[in-house]
Amino acid sequence: MKFLLVFDFDHTIIDENSDTWIVKCAPERKLPNGLRNSYQPGHWTEYMGRVFVYLGDNGVKEDEMKRTMTTIPFTAGMIDLLGFIGENKDLFDCIIVSDSNTVFIDWILKAADFHKVFDEVFTNPAAFSSTGYLTVQHFHAHHCAKCPKNLCKRKVLKEFLDKQLERGVSYTQIVYIGDGGNDLCPVMFLKKNDVAMPRQGYTLEKKISQLAQNLSPVQCSVLVWSSAIDILSYLKLLIKE
Q1: What residues have CB less than 8 Å from 37, skipping those under 6 apart?
Q2: 119 included as an active-site residue
Q3: Does residue 10 carry a catalytic annotation?
Q4: Per CATH, is 3-15+74-124+147-239 categorized as 3.30.420.40?
Q5: Among 15, 29, 72, 104, fewest CB within 10 Å belongs to which?
């Protein structure tokens, strides 16, 4: 009896967007208009690549970025929730599927000593170049029309589950915790016994209710959360059953 917990990262584990938080490192803590306006829908990773070049050009170094990123607050109740999951790793497998990047997530989880809670992190690969610039790449290629070019979370989840099955691991229930529009695709992949936990007032919750209004609701159960304590209460119930 094992449960799989799937977490988004930005606005779910942390209470901010890590990609926009890094702008605090920029001169005057803002980006030039030309750069800001260069974003095209579905091409966020390319946009962030340009942001990192701008930071590098302005002499922003790795240690300054790291200091800034590790000040991002966790979502209310998240520290308690991750502590609980860490103490019950025999019952929970736990992964992150995020449109952030490996460097940011690694810094934040390690600084708070939560990296051991997660079995795998699926996100855009990032690294510092020999000249000290942060670079980021697409996580994978996919054919899903609904998702941003660099990441389809449904594909990630499906491939992870297939790989686990090959290892002889299957899950009693999948609990998907997220907030954004790109979390809808994996939520629609969940089965009747699974649970989607959208964050209250965020895009994912709105999209799920829209589907229900259009009489094409998601198959799984839906439990809305506003503090991670709501998620913690549900997991405690789950393991009591």
Answers
A1: none
A2: no
A3: yes
A4: no
A5: 29
The domain ranges of the chain are 3-15+74-124+147-239
Tell me: is residue 8 an annotated ligand-binding position: yes
198 three-class SS: strand
Q: Which two tokens stand for residue 189?
A: 């992949």
Q: Does 179 show up as a binding residue in the annotation?
A: yes
Q: Which of 8, 93, 183, 194 is catalytic?
A: 8
Ligand-binding site membership of 10 (annotated): yes
Q: What are the tens digits of pLDDT across the range 31-47?
A: 999 999 999 988 899 99
- In the set 10, 93, 183, 194, the catalytic residue is 10
What letters, b where the CB count within 10 A reaches 16 and e where it falls short, cover 110-145?
Answer: eebebeebbeebbbbebeeeeeebbbbeebeebeee
pTM as predicted = 0.96
